[in-house]
């Protein structure tokens, strides 16, 4: 069994630079999330429905461009592509400052969505090139903890600016986010790539785009997509259920969000240690399914009891959901990278991340309209769904492992793609 070295991901200069990038990026995102929605409505002249339509269009554009950006990263390098995406996001945020009609808003929001949707899989690819197999999951866990802390710091920094209500203050919030992307890009460009990476022989772009045939990998990505519902449960499910169906006070919502953030910051690294092997990653995904099923049951019970029981149920559900989030992230990091096609890691990771992007489309409707709309039965049905995923994801991942062993080291290199090794660069 491979032993985990904490010293590499937590102590190497490259990992420290990645942590700085994650902190700066997430502080800017925290600023943005705290003020963007208000800025759109108050200072662009757009209605709420126009903003919603524009964001939906942007989400579709981001979904459609994730894999093509991944293919580009396989050709020119993940680090360089991620640097470009950070600069692209900077320009997109600045563009949002000048929107005045639905069309220009949709265009600027779509630009931002392209970078936002591509960044997670590109970051994962960069980490794989920087720290190697032994330190990959722990480094990603460290970055996730750092990002959660950065989100909180960004929101705190935004609070007095948002409270002032002035147009200048909101423009400072948006410019702060743009500046964070610029600084993150500059630092990221200095992260040394010390590991030789496989490059695929170039073929026509559309041929490469249509070449993905690994249905087992896609199946695991789809199952993982269901587990990523924890994000929508946190942002929509728990607050709406608390307000509509429980006797708990509304003031409990920020407390529950704080519990989630604190658990992510403190527990992401230690609880990710089990996910550095194929078996450990599958175990983490199963644990995530069990925790999320327990969360759904706790939510159902919280709507059937009095004040004290409702508060206890919501707190318990949030704790279980947070554990599910932590284990799902760790398991998905290892599975998605371990079985990525040699020479096409960024493309494969982009395909896997489509499950997350898809969840952002179907998740809000499923949780708000179906689960909460059906009440207790809706939450129990969701618990059953998580239970099914928990049972199926093990055999699905094992099938992916068996296929990988049969095919050997180049198992996922598609016909017409000859894997080549390029020298490491700095």
How would you describe what is shown here?
- By secondary structure, the chain is an all-alpha fold.
- The protein folds into two domains: 10-198, Growth Hormone, Chain: A (Up-down Bundle); 212-407, MFS general substrate transporter like domains (Growth Hormone, Chain: A).
- Helices cover 80% and strands 2% of the residues.
- The protein contains 14 helices and two strands, in the order H-H-H-H-H-H-E-H-H-H-H-H-H-H-H-E.
- It has helices at 7-11, 13-43, 48-76, 78-96, 102-164, 167-188, 205-209, 215-227, 230-245, 252-271, 278-302, 307-338, 345-374, 376-407, and strands at residues 197-200, 419-422.
- A two-stranded antiparallel sheet has the order 1-2.
- Helix 3 runs antiparallel to helix 4, helix 3 (48-76) runs antiparallel to helix 13 (345-374) and helix 10 (252-271) runs parallel beside helix 12.
- It is globular, with a radius of gyration of 21 Å.
- The two termini are 31 Å apart.
- Residues 1-9, 204-210 and 410-426 have low confidence and may be disordered.
Explain the layout of strands and helices.
Elements: H1 7-11, H2 13-43, H3 48-76, H4 78-96, H5 102-164, H6 167-188, E1 197-200, H7 205-209, H8 215-227, H9 230-245, H10 252-271, H11 278-302, H12 307-338, H13 345-374, H14 376-407, E2 419-422
Antiparallel strand pairs: 1-2
């Amino acid at each position: 069994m491979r032993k985990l070295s904490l010293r590499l991901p937590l102590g190497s200069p490259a990992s420290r630079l990645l942590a700085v990038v994650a902190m700066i990026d997430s502080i800017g995102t925290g600023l943005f999330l705290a003020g963007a929605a208000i800025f759109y409505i108050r200072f662009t002249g757009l209605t709420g429905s126009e903003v919603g339509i524009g964001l939906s269009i942007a989400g579709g554009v981001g979904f459609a461009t994730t894999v093509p950006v991944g293919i580009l990263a396989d050709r020119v390098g993940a680090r360089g592509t991620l640097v470009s995406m950070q600069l692209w996001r900077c320009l997109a945020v600045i563009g949002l400052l000048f929107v005045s009609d639905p069309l220009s808003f949709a265009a600027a929001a779509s630009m931002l969505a392209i970078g936002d949707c591509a960044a997670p899989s590109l970051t994962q690819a960069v980490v794989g090139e920087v720290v190697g197999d032994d330190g990959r999951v722990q480094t990603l866990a460290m970055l996730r903890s750092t990002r959660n802390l950065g989100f909180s710091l960004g929101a705190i920094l935004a609070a007095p600016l948002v409270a002032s209500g002035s147009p200048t203050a909101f423009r400072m919030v948006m410019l702060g986010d743009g500046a964070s992307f610029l600084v993150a890009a500059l630092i990221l460009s200095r992260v040394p790539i010390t590991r030789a990476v496989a490059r695929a022989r170039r073929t026509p772009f559309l041929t490469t785009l249509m070449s993905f045939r690994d249905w087992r990998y896609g199946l695991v990505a789809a199952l993982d997509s269901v587990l990523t519902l924890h994000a929508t449960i946190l942002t929509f499910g728990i607050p709406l259920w608390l307000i509509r169906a429980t006797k708990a006070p509304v003031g409990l919502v920020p407390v529950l969000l704080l519990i989630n953030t604190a658990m992510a910051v403190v527990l992401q690294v230690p609880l990710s240690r089990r996910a550095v092997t194929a078996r450990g990653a599958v175990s983490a995904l199963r644990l995530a399914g069990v925790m999320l099923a327990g969360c759904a049951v706790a939510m159902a019970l919280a709507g059937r009891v009095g004040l004290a029981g409702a508060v206890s149920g919501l707190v318990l559900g949030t704790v279980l959901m947070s554990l599910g989030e932590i284990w799902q992230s760790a398991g998905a990091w290892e599975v998605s990278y371990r079985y990525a096609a040699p020479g096409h890691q960024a493309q494969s990771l982009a395909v896997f991340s489509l499950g997350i992007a898809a969840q952002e489309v179907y998740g809000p409707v499923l949780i708000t309209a179906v689960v909460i709309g059906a009440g207790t039965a809706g939450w129990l049905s969701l618990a059953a769904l998580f239970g099914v995923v928990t049972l199926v994801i093990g055999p699905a991942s094992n099938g992916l492992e068996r296929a990988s062993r049969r095919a050997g080291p180049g198992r996922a290199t598609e016909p017409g793609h000859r894997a080549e090794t390029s020298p490491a660069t700095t």
